[in-house]
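Could you please consider the sequence and fold appended to this message?
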Amino acid sequence: MVITTLLRLRGFRLLLGTRLLSQAADGAFQAALASYVVFSPERQATPGAIASAFAVMLLPFTLFGPIAGAVLDRWRRRHVLVQGNGLRLLLCLGTAALVLARVPTAVFFAAALVVTGINRFVLAGLSAGTPHVVPAGSLVTANALAPTAGTVATTVGAGLAVVVRLALTPGPQANAGLLALAALGYAASAATAQRLGPDALGPEHPQHLALRRTFADSTADLRSGLSYLRREARPARDALAAVTICRFCYGLLLVTLLMLCRNSFAAPDDQGTALRYLGLALGVSAAGFFAAALITPWATRRLGVAGWLSCCAALGAVLTPVLGLLFAPLPTVIAAFVLGLVSQGVKISVDTTVQATVADGYRGRVFVLYDILFNVSLVTAAAACALVLPVSGRSAPLVLTSSALYAATAVGYFCRSAHHSLSIRSASS
């Protein structure tokens, strides 16, 4: 089996371990942020509050992404992983201290901005380094295994944090404990990445540029990356457009799920029930991620990467209204599984497309652009929910809009992919 073969590769094992530990810590940190913003008894959970939390988690990387692209294509990516996780360790501990000191919410958000800003930087480095530790013929399987396992690790980390949160008395000490849990994960991730060789993850021609020079070149690098996508990497460009729309739909439905769990499936003052519903939905969604990892290598052998991506979007278009319009716990939990399957199937397909069609000298920049689009689409979706979604989470127009966008993506991407005939196939698993 290809998965067994991949796990025999020391470089891939270490990269996978770095990812799992880092993303499990991300889950714990995100749970701490959600606990602070959404599930604190003294704060009312609204779509606007969730949109603010999403902005805190995702916009920092959007602002500094061009610099990250320059770094990933010039500095040794192993060093980026080690130092990025080490910095997050220190910042997590500092944020925990701020929480214990009962600082104003704005100060907490400012600290969280920095921690989460590094998150996507590290994930882009992991994706850009993957082709250096696995054979080209195994990229689909590697992308089915690693990012999906990372997403599951995020869910496990968040779930563990929810258990810890339920066991502790609500308050600053509980939130600080979750942040300390995240710090442990970042420390372990940095230690694992340190075991990789300095040049194990590329780039092929590392440069020793001063940080000031890297900042100066970042704008030009972003322009060159966009120009490269437009002129020489059309399959990657079309795939990025598709995943951006699908991520927007994911954001709409995720905020809807949060509001339903918090305000419709439980009494306003019953945090425990709300957290249990949310934990169940997240666990089932993680099962959907895992199912996508199992199905995608098989599906891409038969349909091609582009065909499978189109099928995932079509599945979202059909099942989103069938399940989502009931606004009841059981259909919502099933919808969470479908949402996990669809979103991860699309992501695996896009990761593979970018890795297989973008030259290594541009891969870091393109993955940074990928993450910027990923983040902006989710924040935009949360902002849209803040404007139109009621506090109860029950909105048929929003669910139908998501379905229509999934359908448009399925048809549009399938037609576009026929022009460039992308046919990346996974090896047998």
Residues 69 and 365 are 4 Å apart (CA to CA). Residues 2-203+226-420 form a domain with the Growth Hormone; Chain: A; fold (CATH 1.20.1250.20).
